[in-house]
Design a protein that fits this description.
Helix content: under 10%
Low-confidence stretches: 1-11, 565-575
Structural class: mainly beta
Distance between the termini: 134 Å
Number of helices: 7
Strand content: 25-35%
Mean pLDDT: 92
Number of strands: 49
Oligomer: single chain
Shape: elongated
């Protein structure tokens, strides 16, 4: 009978209760089941604050296993559940606004917490030492996390505090399981914020971050792995709170070892971060992979970015771009479709092979600071997308193969100060006329070879014409070279058929230019029988030099004539068309283009008969059959 009575008493909940309101003690009532360890709160308003002393709280801390806050309560008092080592279940109400200092400090059995949307403040050391606390849910409207709030917990991911702008020092210190953090609204990284978070792999911070203190990533060893990264979304690099803060004391590593720490930043901020005294020692890269550094002398002097919306590569910074090689060291954007290239001011050189093999490239904008366009910079396109290019007056050198196989390149403007046009620079392009390179002294090997539509060239400053420079330019009918021409290499005008049929060469040099080798013959230079050359290939020279050219072993094989007063001579209609009283008649419907003497397109179409209404003058007619000169 006595035993039954004891068992009955043991099964009956033993409830104690009281009040703990802050402004008015009776505003909040607490109730503790001492058998189950369940502590609940009802009422409204703020809970009073307590101290670390076990005698200062009305409930026995070691008894508590679960806590329930009912709706109406707006804050949890300081030290309310300090060292409640058996607390494993926590239910917070939707009215809760603030958790006060050390409220759950050292609740070592607490594994997870769900924070209500109403919560805005987590005070100092609120969950410090909750060594089993691995999961925090909710908290999207928390704006303030005070110092040490989650220090020495088992948190793995902290990405839910999207509104937190104020996060106190060492708030997540010694969270050795922490792998990922994200604070899109944070404004300052306080001292020792992630100190000792040895497994931290990803740390992302929003655009409002503007200041950092020392020790933020102290001993965050996992951040040195190439797969880990820090991400800053701000355009302006956050500054150190004082001059004593540098990368070494921020990470507790030598600055040399920090080159493996990846710092991802917006494309438009690469230059700023890359050359920043604090952040520049890290491996600064683009946040989306569509940007990076491409300087030659100092990699971080020049930046590239890629916009996938318009397939545009933009080059910014100052100095020379790095050189690349199609196979062994391709440009970092080479695996992307590039339709447009925009090079900003202060860039002085475009690197070798920088935009080679870009078959979709159609638009190029170059700055007035540019001095050199490197070898094959835009070459090997093997497409007709690029139609025109303007070369700034600052450019001095065009590298070899710079526009090689840009099949559709028809119009080249500017370039008046280019002195060196290197081998195959414009080979197999669609250029019609080249008279803009007025300072060019060197024309490299095959520089304009196989430009099958090229009709007119003018090089008033040239001193040397390289081998096969105009080889295969079958439409070339008017080629004039200035008074400084000294040397011509083999096969320079090989298969330039229109020079013989309807055109002429003009050398303004008083002394006949020499040939690179004594073995070069007129036949080899033009791929034409010397007898025929003497019958139909005209060479205009200064009037006082006709005798010298006529006696030259090569130039004397041509029809040497004193140069006429006009630079353009009349050509008559060929066998494919007739021109009578301003009416152009083709043998069959033909696609044609008509250019004036300055190379401007003045008419085009597809017809069998065309009435030409252009003003009187000399014009170039281009058809699929070739090029001819018309006089209206």
């Amino acid at each position: 009978m006595a035993l039954a009575s004891v068992l009955s008493m043991m099964a009956t909940p033993q409830v104690t209760s009281g009040y703990c309101g802050k402004n008015n003690l009776t505003d909040i009532r607490w109730s503790l089941d001492t058998i189950s360890g369940h502590l609940s709160f009802t009422g409204s308003g703020e809970m009073k604050d307590f101290s670390r002393s076990f005698t200062d709280v009305p409930w026995r801390r070691s008894t508590i296993q679960s806590v329930l806050l009912n709706a109406g309560i707006t804050s949890i008092g300081a030290y309310a559940f300090y060292e409640c080592e058996n607390l494993s279940s926590l239910t917070l109400c939707s009215s809760l606004v603030k958790i006060n200092g050390e409220a759950f400090n050292r609740c070592t059995s607490l594994a997870s917490v769900t924070l209500p949307a109403s919560l805005t403040t987590i005070s100092e050391e609120a969950f410090l030492g909750c060594t089993q606390l691995a999961t925090i849910n909710g908290g999207a409207n928390v704006t303030t996390i005070r110092y040490g709030a989650f220090q020495n917990t088992a948190l793995v991911n902290v990405t839910n505090f999207v509104s937190a702008s104020d996060v106190g020092f060492r708030a997540f210190r010694d969270c050795q399981s922490l792998k990922e953090v994200s604070f899109p609204s944070i404004t300052r990284l306080e001292a020792d914020l992630f100190y000792g978070c040895t497994r931290l792999e990803k740390a992302c911070f929003g655009p409002d971050l503007n200041m950092v203190e020392g020790g933020v990533f102290y001993n965050c060893d996992a951040l040195l792995n190439s797969s880990s990264y820090i991400q800053f979304d701000g355009i302006t690099p956050p500054v150190a709170v004082n001059v004593s803060v540098d990368a070494a004391n921020m990470f507790n590593k030598s600055e040399e070892s920090l080159s493996t720490v990846v710092l991802r930043v917006p494309n438009g901020a690469l230059l700023a971060y890359g050359n920043d005294a604090l952040w520049g020692v890290l491996n600064v890269t683009s946040v989306d992979g569509n940007g990076g550094f491409c300087g030659k002398t100092n990699e971080r002097d020049v930046v590239w970015t890629y916009n996938a919306n318009d397939n545009c590569v933009t080059i910014s910074g100052s100095g020379d771009m790095a050189d690349y090689y199609a196979q062994s060291r391709p440009a970092p954007w080479s695996n992307r479709t590039v339709q447009e290239v925009y090079v900003n001011e202060n860039i002085t050189a475009i690197g070798n092979y920088a935009f080679a093999h870009q078959s979709e490239l159609s638009t190029i904008t170059l700055p007035s600071s540019l001095l050199t366009i490197g070898n094959a910079a835009f070459g090997y396109a093997q497409s007709d997308k690029l139609k025109s290019i303007h070369i700034p007056s600052s450019v001095k050198t065009l590298g070899r193969e710079v526009f090689f196989e840009c099949y559709g390149l028809r119009t080249v403007t500017g370039g008046e100060n280019v002195t060196d046009i290197r081998a195959r620079a414009f080979r197999q392009t669609d250029v019609l006329q080249v008279d803009n390179f007025t300072s060019a002294t060197i024309i490299g090997e095959q520089a304009f070879a196989y430009c099958s539509r090229l009709g007119v060239v003018r090089f008033p400053a040239v001193t040397a014409i390289g081998s096969e420079s105009f080889s295969g330019c079958t439409a070339l009918y008017n080629a004039r070279f200035g008074a400084d021409l000294q040397q011509v290499d083999r096969m320079a005008f090989f298969n330039c058929e229109s020079l013989h049929l309807t055109g002429h060469l003009q050398f303004d040099a008083v002394v006949p230019p020499s040939l690179v080798s004594d073995t070069i013959t007129a036949a080899g230079l033009f791929n034409e029988d010397e007898t025929l050359l003497g019958m139909r290939t005209s060479l205009y020279v200064p009037s006082g030099s006709v005798g010298a050219y006529s006696q030259h072993p090569v130039w004397g094989k041509l029809i040497v004539t004193a140069r006429p007063n006009t630079h353009i001579t009349e050509l008559h209609a060929g066998t494919d068309f007739t021109l009578v009283d301003g009416v152009l008649n083709f043998d069959a419907p033909t696609t044609y283009e008509l250019y004036d003497s300055n190379g401007r397109l003045v008419g085009k179409g597809h017809a069998a008969s065309v009435s030409l209404t252009q003003p009187a003058g000399i014009y170039l007619l281009h058809t699929e059959h070739g090029t001819a000169k018309l006089k209206l």
